[in-house]
UniProtKB/TrEMBL annotation:
GO molecular function, one term: metal ion binding
Cofactors, names only: [2Fe-2S] cluster
Stored SUPFAM superfamilies: Thioredoxin-like
Region (Disordered): 229-276
InterPro entries: NuoE-like, NuoE_dom, NuoE_N, Thioredoxin-like_sf
CDD domains: TRX_Fd_NuoE
Catalytic activity: a quinone + NADH + 5 H(+)(in) = a quinol + NAD(+) + 4 H(+)(out)
Family the entry assigns: Belongs to the complex I 24 kDa subunit family.
This protein's UniProt keywords: 2Fe-2S, Iron, Iron-sulfur, Metal-binding, NAD, Translocase
Role, per record: NDH-1 shuttles electrons from NADH, via FMN and iron-sulfur (Fe-S) centers, to quinones in the respiratory chain. The immediate electron acceptor for the enzyme in this species is believed to be menaquinone. Couples the redox reaction to proton translocation (for every two electrons transferred, four hydrogen ions are translocated across the cytoplasmic membrane), and thus conserves the redox energy in a proton gradient.
Protein name from the UniProt record: NADH-quinone oxidoreductase subunit E
Species name: Streptomyces rapamycinicus (strain ATCC 29253 / DSM 41530 / NRRL 5491 / AYB-994)
Length: 276
């Protein structure tokens, strides 16, 4: 439920300190120059101000409005529409658990429920140490690696309850965590600056982007007339005995777990409305 504030109207947002404003204006000019119409730069500029404070503040929206010649109402309408823009302070690592259909039945609901208990936070909340913000998210277009967890939009595929708990524990301990695929992990502020369109200057980060994995390319190879590959299995079953008969379930992974919210014997999944 949205908070309703009564009383005096909210005062105009304060400006950035002079040195911050100067630096952001220089970056903003570079972003705006990429577009024939300056207002088209609003989305990357919102990522830019998010990289400064970790979320889009009233000051950040005022900055975007001023450099683009827009009203704060126009900027606010955009910032509140897209979920990638945070509206309140959040952690260094945004841990998003996919709870859309396939990930949910493969264990995503159970992962999300267990992480809430393990971290002591609800949907969209941040741990007391400021390290992790947990939320359930919609499809990440990685159904062939379900269930998927994303950290600052980097993929952690084929997760289980235990591997997801170990992942957030490593993040909170400050240890290096490697995504299943893609670029090395960085903080949420650093991710926001990359999304604003500035180069990722970390050595090897761009090259680490890689391509689609084997599970994603099976259909393409069959369409090209190539010999069908062996059955693609989840890394979770990699240690299974090789002489064991293959399961009858047609999925490329192990059979769905009975953990969806629709199963009365295993209630799971988000219990709060989006944004609560």
């Amino acid at each position: 439920m949205t908070d309703v504030q009564l009383g005096m109207p909210e005062l105009p947002a304060p400006d950035y300190p002079a040195e911050v404003r100067t630096r952001l204006e220089e970056d903003a000019r570079e972003v705006i120059a990429r577009y024939p119409d300056s207002r088209s730069a609003l989305l990357p500029l919102l990522h830019l101000v998010q990289s400064e404070e970790g979320h889009v503040t009233r000051t950040g929206m005022r900055f975007c409005a001023e450099v683009l010649g827009l009203t704060t109402a126009e900027v606010t309408a955009v910032a509140t529409f897209y979920t990638m823009y945070r509206r309140k302070p959040s952690g260094d690592y945004q841990v998003g658990v996919c709870t859309n259909t396939l990930c949910a039945v493969m264990g995503g609901d159970a992962i999300f429920e267990e992480l809430q208990s393990h971290l002591g936070v609800g949907n969209g909340e941040t741990t007391e140490d400021g390290k992790v913000t947990l939320e359930h998210i919609e499809c990440n277009a990685a159904c062939d690696y379900a269930p998927v967890v994303m950290v600052n939009w980097e993929f952690f595929d084929n997760q289980t309850v235990e591997s997801a708990k170990a992942l957030v524990d490593e993040l909170r301990a400050g240890r290096t965590v490697e995504p299943t695929r893609g670029a090395p992990l960085c903080t949420y502020k650093e991710t926001a600056r990359i999304l604003a369109g500035f180069p990722d200057a970390r050595p090897g980060a761009v090259e680490a982007g890689g391509s689609a994995g084997p599970a994603s390319l099976v259909g393409l190879r069959l369409a090209k007339g190539e010999v069908a590959p062996g059955r693609v299995v989840s890394p979770r079953s990699a240690d299974a005995p090789q002489d064991e008969a293959p399961p009858t379930h047609p999925s490329s992974h192990d059979a769905p777990q009975r953990t969806s919210a629709s199963d009365p014997h295993h209630p799971a999944g988000p219990v709060a409305e989006e944004g609560e």
